[in-house]
Design a protein that fits this description.
By secondary structure, the chain is of the alpha/beta class. It folds into 4 domains: 4-17 and 170-316, Molybdenum Cofactor Biosythetic Enzyme, Chain A (3-Layer(aba) Sandwich), CATH 3.40.980; 20-43 and 136-169, Alpha-Beta Complex (Molybdopterin biosynthesis moea protein, domain 2), CATH 3.90.105; 48-131, Molybdopterin biosynthesis moea protein, domain 3 (Molybdopterin biosynthesis moeA protein, domain 3), CATH 2.170.190.11; 326-396, Beta-clip (Beta Barrel), CATH 2.40.340. 19% of the residues lie in helices and 32% in strands. It has 7 helices and 28 strands. Helix 1 (4-13) crosses helix 6 (297-316) and helix 3 (199-209) runs parallel beside helix 6 (297-316). The longest helix is centred in the C-terminal third of the chain and has 20 residues, at 297-316. The chain is elongated and about 95 Å long.
C-alpha cells in the first residue's frame, strides 16, 4: 500500500490552478482571492476626530475651566479651516482635524456659553481622541494576500483599498456519484438490507461549503454495465472533480476501479496505508480529478478531508493545501495498535489558555455520530501510544472540511 504522504503528493501533483474571474465586491465573500490587495491610501486618510467635541491645541488649554472662542464647526465630510491660536473648533466624529489642532475635548466635557464662547472643563493631552493619518495601515500596505478565502471583514479592507471588484478563483465544477444496490434516498424508509444515502449529502455539502458548483449524479447500482455507463457519462461532463463513493474495496461487487479504467481514466493509486479510508482511489481523466471514496461514511469523510480538500485548496491557490497537524495536550490516553496511520476523531477546546484535545470513542468507520461530534482529528502514527498530558498532532478543520 502507498504511504499517505506519497499518495497526497501524487494527488497534488496533478492539480491545475483554477482560472481567475472578476466579481463585484459584494459577491466575493467565500471566494478565494487571486490577487494581492494593497492599500492605495493610508487609513485614516487624514487626521480625524474620534469623538464629537471641540478640536483644540492642547498647549492652549493648560488650566480648566477655560473659556475659549468658538472658531467654527465641521461635521464628517466637511473640511475645516485652520484653528486660530487659543480657540476651539466644534467637530463631529469622523471630521478632519482642523489644521493647527492636536486634541479633542469631548462634548460632555465642555459647555457652549453662547454662539461665540465655549467653556472647556478638561485639559486634553496632545493626541486625545484623535485618529492619526495612517495609524490603521499606511499607503502601500498589503491588506489581503492572494490565496485567501474571503470573509465579510476582508471586504471592508478591499473597499478601504478602493476596490469595487476583485479577481478570485473561479468555482470548482464538481459532480458526485453514489454507488450501491443497498442505497435508498435519505428521506425513504429502508427495506430489508437497505440503508439511507448519507454519503451523497455529506460530499455535496462539503463541496458546496468549499465554494464548488456541484451536480448530483444520483445513485448507480452495483453492476459492471451500469457503473461503466454511469462513469462514462460522468467523465464526459468534463468537470474539475468527480467524486464516487462505494465500490472501491475488495468485495465481489466493487467494480468502480475496473469501470473507471474501462471508461478511459488512469488510476494513479488505489489503497493508502491509513485508517479509516484505506480503499481510497485516485484517478485522472483528462483534466478531471477522480476520487473513488469508500462507502463507509466516516471513511468517505476522511478521504475527502485528506485528499479532496487539499486538491480543492491547491487548485484555488490556498496554501498550504493540507494545513499541518499542530500539537495539543491530550485529555486522555490514546493508542493506535494498527500498522496504518490513523485519523482519530477528537474534541478540541481551550482550557486556561491551553489547547486540550480529548479523543472521542468511536465504533469504527460507520460511526457517523462520533464524526459529527468531532471538531478535530488526531494523527496517530502506526503502533503508537500517547498518554494523558502528552502533546499529540491534531488536524483542525477549515472552510473546506467535512467537520
Amino acid at each position: 500500500m502507498l504511504a499517505f504522504d506519497d499518495a497526497l503528493a501524487i494527488t497534488l501533483g496533478t492539480v491545475t490552478p483554477l482560472a481567475a474571474v472578476v466579481v463585484p465586491l459584494a459577491d466575493a465573500t467565500g471566494r478565494v482571492l487571486a490577487e494581492d490587495v494593497a492599500a492605495d491610501l493610508p487609513l485614516p486618510p487624514f487626521d480625524t476626530t474620534a469623538m464629537d467635541g471641540w478640536a483644540v491645541r492642547a498647549a492652549d488649554v493648560k488650566r480648566t475651566p477655560a473659556l475659549v472662542a468658538r472658531a467654527g464647526a465641521a461635521g464628517a465630510g466637511r473640511v475645516p479651516g485652520t484653528l486660530p491660536e487659543g480657540a476651539a473648533w466644534k467637530v463631529m466624529t469622523g471630521a478632519p482635524m482642523p489644521p493647527g489642532s492636536d486634541a479633542v475635548v469631548p462634548v460632555e466635557d465642555a459647555v457652549e456659553i453662547d454662539t461665540g464662547v465655549v467653556r472647556l472643563d478638561v485639559a486634553p493631552r496632545p493626541g486625545a481622541h484623535v485618529r492619526l493619518c495612517g495609524e490603521v495601515f499606511p499607503k502601500g500596505a498589503l491588506l489581503l494576500p492572494a490565496g485567501r478565502r474571503l470573509t465579510p471583514a476582508d471586504l471592508v479592507l478591499a473597499a478601504a483599498a478602493g476596490r469595487a471588484t476583485l479577481r478570485v478563483a473561479r468555482p470548482v465544477r464538481a459532480a458526485v456519484l453514489v454507488t450501491g444496490d443497498e442505497i435508498v434516498a435519505s428521506g425513504a424508509t429502508p427495506g430489508p438490507a437497505q440503508i439511507r444515502n448519507t454519503n451523497g449529502p455529506l460530499l455535496i455539502g462539503a463541496l458546496r461549503r468549499a465554494g464548488a458548483e456541484v451536480t448530483d449524479l444520483g445513485v448507480a447500482r452495483d453492476t459492471e454495465a451500469v457503473l461503466l455507463k454511469a462513469l462514462r457519462a460522468a467523465l464526459s461532463r468534463g468537470d474539475d472533480v468527480l467524486l464516487t463513493t462505494g465500490g472501491v474495496s475488495a468485495g465481489d461487487y466493487d467494480f468502480v476501479a475496473a469501470a473507471l479504467e474501462a471508461a478511459g481514466a488512469s488510476i494513479r493509486f488505489h489503497k493508502v496505508a491509513i485508517r479509516p479510508a484505506k480503499p481510497v482511489l485516485f484517478a485522472t481523466h483528462g483534466a478531471t480529478l477522480v476520487f473513488g471514496l469508500p462507502g463507509n461514511p466516516v471513511s468517505a469523510a476522511i478521504a475527502f478531508d485528506f485528499f479532496v480538500r487539499p486538491a480543492l485548496r491547491a487548485a484555488a491557490g490556498i496554501r498550504p493545501p493540507l494545513p499541518p497537524a499542530l500539537p495539543a495536550r491530550l485529555a486522555a490516553s490514546v493508542r493506535n495498535k494498527g500498522p496504518r496511520l490513523a485519523f482519530h476523531p477528537a474534541s478540541l477546546s481551550l482550557r486556561d489558555g491551553m489547547e486540550i484535545v480529548e479523543p472521542l470513542a468511536t465504533k469504527g468507520s460507520h460511526d457517523v455520530l462520533a464524526h459529527a461530534q468531532a471538531n478535530a482529528f488526531l494523527e496517530l502514527p502506526p503502533a503508537s501510544f500517547f498518554d494523558e498530558g502528552d502533546l499529540v498532532p491534531v488536524h483542525r478543520g477549515t472552510a473546506e472540511s467535512t467537520f
